[in-house]
Design brief:
By secondary structure, the chain is α/β, with parallel strands linked by helices. 30% of the residues lie in helices and 21% in strands. It has helices spanning 23-35, 54-58, 73-76, 79-83, 98-112, 127-140, 157-172, 274-282, 306-310, 318-324, 328-337, 354-370; strands at residues 15-19, 43-47, 145-149, 176-180, 193-197, 203-207, 234-245, 248-259, 263-267, 292-295, 298-299, 313-316, 342-346, 375-379, 392-395.
Length: 401
């Protein structure tokens, strides 16, 4: 990257935005900066952009539903793991003392609040919890510049607010931070300047003023009426579900029925069980055959082929983005092309710029209007991204209320 770029970067203690109309251009600029000669050894890039891939960011396999053991958060953030130190290698000079590392890590763990799942297996973490662990690890090497690409995607509102607090605290400690985000409310309030990129990646330093494409779109918010049962046959039936995972109780005597033609929004804080619930429905969870669940009126097992059920479902998820290498928009196109009876949308707008997210939202709404018997369940943390027609809501935070 050209050395003139250095003039665009924040000084120590400042958070600077990276803005522009194209998410791919922003991601590419952040990646090239982190790999440049000037910053290769002193910058930390944490990218959750679609083409970076969740799997590449974490290095963890899709086996999250098939193991209870394995490496814990404590293991992943250990001195040896962070620096790749082989305890049997003789003569290698450590980058810093273990004591200095542990003291800094202890401060970071308190700041990012990952202590609460310190002993949990990595594969048991939700997407949002994983991001907090990865942020802690990126900071553990004490970088001079932290580059964040779409760090708030997939975070619940409370965690988005917590992320802003954490970043402002880090800036006060002298860290320089660059952030590329999709929405104006994802940047900390202290941001006053931005690196503005045009569609060709040409950069300029400007006062920070979010563009309309980065602002929430109130017209996308669904009507806030309680949806009535459609009267159609049940498509999803879950009875008396109790499930422990990662050393904690996710569901206790949980019951849920979704009928043909209904459109549900599934809400809940990171780690509340939303993605686990989807995995039970699709059969990707090993507990799918151990619980009382019917899809399209068919119980699991008893000669019912899982492939037959899946052929009637169109699905989108962050894991599919990572492991299939497709963007969320491509996955939505593929899911709708199946003419599914059941549409499962887990964060379908993740990593899309605001304009594209609105286009995809309208596409989903148009499809559901044209196919009134199609049932849909959506996981989405931003109310301004929920398409029209989704008038049923299940909040996993308040199951016992």
């Amino acid at each position: 990257m050209h050395t003139g770029t250095l003039d665009l970067l924040p000084p120590a203690g400042e958070i600077r935005a990276v803005t522009g109309p194209d998410a791919d251009v922003r991601s590419d600029w952040c990646r090239r900066l982190a790999q440049s000669d000037e910053w290769a050894d002193s910058a930390a890039l944490l990218s959750f952009a679609a083409h970076a891939g969740f799997a590449q960011a974490t290095g963890w396999p899709q086996a999250r539903y098939y193991e209870e053991g394995g490496e814990t958060v404590a293991d992943f953030l250990s001195y040896e793991e962070v620096y790749g130190i082989n305890p049997y290698e003789v003569g290698a000079k450590p980058p810093e003392t273990k004591r200095a590392f542990k003291e800094r890590l202890a401060r970071l763990v308190r700041l990012t609040d990952v202590r609460k799942f310190w002993e949990r297996p990595l594969i048991s973490l939700s997407n949002g919890e994983t991001r907090r662990v990865l942020l802690t690890r990126a900071l553990a090497k004490n970088p001079k510049l932290l580059i964040l690409d779409d760090p708030a995607a997939g975070l619940d509102p409370a965690q988005r607010a917590k992320l802003k607090d954490v970043l402002q605290a880090l800036a006060k400690r002298g860290l320089a931070i660059l952030m590329a985000c999709r929405h104006a409310d994802e940047w900390p309030e202290c941001v006053t300047r931005a690196v503005r990129l045009d569609k060709k990646g040409r950069a300029s330093l400007v006062p920070f003023t979010p563009t309309p494409d980065e602002a929430p779109d109130a017209s996308q918010a669904p009507a806030r009426r309680a949806g009535r049962p459609s009267g159609g046959p049940p498509v999803i039936e879950i009875r008396d579900l109790s499930l422990d995972y990662g050393g904690r109780r996710l569901f206790s005597h949980f019951n849920w029925t979704v009928r043909q033609g209904e459109h549900w929004v599934l809400r809940g804080e990171n780690g509340s069980g939303k993605t686990t619930l989807f995995a039970l429905i699709t059969g990707d969870s090993p507990w799918a055959y151990a619980v009382d669940i019917k899809i399209f009126g068919l119980p699991r097992g008893n000669g019912v082929a899982l492939s037959d059920i899946r052929s009637r479902i169109g699905a989108v998820s962050p894991e599919m983005q990572a492991y299939l290498g497709h963007s969320a928009r491509e996955l939505v196109d593929a899911a709708l092309a199946k003419d599914p009876e059941l549409l499962l949308l887990d964060e379908p707008f993740m990593n899309l710029d605001a304009r594209t997210a609105r286009t995809v939202g309208r596409q989903i709404a148009a499809y559901l209007r044209k196919h009134p018997k199609t049932t849909a369940v959506l996981i989405c943390h931003r109310r301004d991204e929920v398409p029209p027609l989704f008038d049923h809501e299940l909040d996993l935070n308040h199951l016992g209320d």
